[in-house]
Amino acid sequence: QEAINKDIIERSPYFRFHPKKGKSKEPIYLEDYEIQLLLNCDKEIKEQTDSDRLLKVRDLFIFQCFTGLAYSDLMKLTKEDITEIDNVKVIRSNRTKTDQNFISVILPEAINILERYNYELPRISNQKYNDYLKLVALYAKDKKTKQSIKKRLTTHVARHTFATYMINKGVPLE
Question: How far is Cα 119 from Cα 115, in angstroms, rounded to an integer?
Fold first, then answer.
């Protein structure tokens, strides 16, 4: 606008500029057999590493796949956020990003993980979590075909996996 006011140009060079809209990418999610590979890779991880860190990362990822929690909500989850409504365990909390409250049913696979850690999930930085997820994917191999998960595991993949799983079970996305 200043260039127009000083008579340097007559009109904005952006007058006819209309950027093309970007195409959204297809969401990446894990299929049932890939989740099973992750659930059954304990032995491979233990044989290759001297730390249980990758097992904890795998458990956090699986927990996300069966709760749909964002990374920030996962890291702030406490025992107090888990209650029972009509004999069903649920997570009742507020989203970190929006401060909106939510209630989410905890599926049996997620309850197993909570019980393994006495309802206090391990904590890890987002950067390390994503780094270790790459390694976890390498160890999650089919014992017969030796094929591993080819998808890049991220917290968003876990959330998309949960959404897809729930839709396939007939639960409306809303």
Answer: 6
Exposed, middle or buried, 73 (CB in 10 Å: 0-12/13-18/19+)? buried
What letter represents residue 135's amino acid? L
Helix (H, G, I), strand (E, B) or coil at 133: helix
CA angle 81, 158, 42 (to 5 degrees): 90
Q: What 3-state DSSP class applies to 94? A: strand
Residue 116 structure tokens: 């393994």
Residue with tokens 């989850």: 77
Which of 147-151, 158-162, 169-173 has maximum average pLDDT?
Answer: 158-162
Cβ count within 10 A of residue 3: 12
d(CA 36, CA 22): 34
- Of 155 and 20, the one with more pLDDT: 155
Question: How many C-beta neighbours within 10 Å does residue 15 have?
Answer: 7
pLDDT at res. 174: 67
